[in-house]
Design brief:
Elements: H1 2-71, H2 75-101, H3 114-121, H4 127-143, H5 154-205, H6 211-235, H7 247-264, E1 268-275, H8 278-285, H9 287-302, E2 311-316, E3 319-325, H10 329-344, E4 361-368, H11 376-392, E5 397-400, E6 406-408, H12 409-413
Parallel strand pairs: 4-5
Antiparallel strand pairs: 1-3, 1-4, 2-3, 5-6
Helix pairs in contact: 1-2, 1-5, 1-6, 2-4, 4-5, 8-9
């Protein structure tokens, strides 16, 4: 009888022991896959926030191009602006479609929450409807004959107003997406806390020595999640192709530097750079080679822009932007010429370029002493206009925004600066 009782007791202990291990195993797997799902969701969130930022940038760019189209009397310039407007409209269409329906190449799943999807498709925001109307207005303006274009046109006011509404609505979308990501992360953390508590309780009942390997696994996964979250935060401000700052980080950085320059009463310089005849490069060598070319150009420019107070960012496509803090016009020209030389000295073959047998860049430089009430976007627009002049006058050169000083490598060597 005693033997039978002992046998039953041992069997009961074994059953409880195995059951405890099974619970621990199940809970460990649940926590592991929860963290794995959270990591994937975090990556999708970062990609969604990035494409949303691109939508806002393109919307503002379309409004700016519309303003420039209305206010220029140069027929050739209008032709360029019309083409750029059409490309911007197409890019906005593509970004919107990728956001709603997914794009694996951009890391977008299209798996938006019902609440976020409703913001796009249902009242009161109806963002998709607003975007469609906005793009129709921009397209109509881009297709309007020259005689129908004039400053202070009511269509321009409509485009500007709709752009502001769309950007504000997209800010709401990004805020909602980030809030959902934080809530999902908090929920996963709560689930992990409960799971750990249950595991600890079971392990206390069945000897603490079983707990150690499980605890190490959970701790390792928690650390991996922390590292992944930190990397996601870093990547949210990094251009995926070139590894330098992206447009979103540039906007944040430039806004802060503008305010700092006002407080310190110091100059601020913006340099816009564009790879010369990059479309011909892509057509001749292929898009994969084009991507590698952009990476090399970014690396060469990064070797010049070294100060921690400065920033090199990819502005879009083959266009780059440099922000130089506390730098006057003379210093800006020095840096711009170094950027020009750094790219050309890489000697990346460009057989299709009518400018040079190697890859070159054109640069526009604008330096200001910001004052309260000034608009920061104006210096960017001035640098962009100078860049346009550099390309118009032969490329592979630096043009200063005010138009009274122009330099390229040839002039520098001739002592004309």
């Amino acid at each position: 009888m005693n033997t039978a009782v002992k046998s039953l007791a041992v069997r009961s202990l074994v059953v409880r022991y195995v059951a405890g291990l099974a619970i621990i195993a199940i809970l460990s797997l649940a926590v592991y896959f929860s963290f794995h799902d959270l990591l994937e969701a975090g990556q999708a969130t970062a990609a969604t926030v990035n494409i949303s930022g691109r939508q806002r940038m393109l919307t503002q760019k379309a409004a700016l191009l519309s303003l420039q189209l209305m206010n220029t009397a140069d027929s050739a310039r209008r032709t360029v602006l019309r083409g750029e407007l059409h490309r911007t409209v197409l890019q906005l269409h593509e970004a919107h479609h990728a956001l709603l329906h997914g794009n694996p190449g951009l890391g977008l799943t299209g798996d938006l929450s019902p609440e976020v999807r409703a913001m796009f498709l249902e009242p009161p925001l109806k963002i998709e409807e607003t975007l469609i109307i906005y793009l129709q207005a921009v397209t109509e303006l881009a297709n309007a004959p020259d005689g129908d274009l004039r400053a202070q046109d009511y269509r321009l006011e409509k485009i500007a107003a709709m752009a502001a509404v769309f950007v504000e609505n997209m800010n709401d979308v990004v805020g909602r997406i980030q809030a959902e990501s934080e809530a999902r992360e908090q929920k996963m953390k709560s689930m992990a806390a409960v799971a750990l508590s249950v595991m600890l309780f079971v392990l206390v009942l069945e000897y603490l020595f079983i707990f150690q390997p499980a605890a190490r696994t959970i701790r390792s996964e928690a650390e991996r999640l922390a590292v992944a979250n930190a990397e996601l935060m870093r990547l949210s401000g990094v251009d995926g192709l070139t590894g330098i700052a992206n447009r979103r980080l540039f906007d944040d950085f430039f806004s802060g530097e503008w305010k700092r320059a006002i407080r310190a009463e110091q100059p601020l310089t913006v340099i816009m750079a564009d790879v010369d005849h990059f479309k011909l490069y892509n057509d001749n060598y292929g898009h994969r080679a084009g991507d590698e070319c952009l990476r090399k150009v970014a690396a060469a420019m990064g070797g010049v822009v070294k100060r921690t107070t400065d920033l090199l960012a990819r502005y879009g496509g083959e266009e780059f932007v440099v922000v130089l803090a506390a730098t006057d016009a003379a210093g800006a020209i020095t840096v711009a010429v170094r950027l020009l030389s750094a790219v050309e000295e890489m000697k990346i073959p460009h057989a299709a370029s009518p400018v040079a047998p190697v890859v070159t860049i054109s640069l526009g430089v604008a330096t200001v002493w910001p004052r309260p009430g000034d608009e920061p976007h104006e210096v960017v627009a001035r640098a962009d206009t100078a860049l346009y002049q550099a390309k118009k006058h032969g490329r592979n050169r630096v043009v200063i925004a005010h138009g009274s000083a122009e330099t390229n490598r040839g002039r520098e060597n001739d002592g004309q600066g």
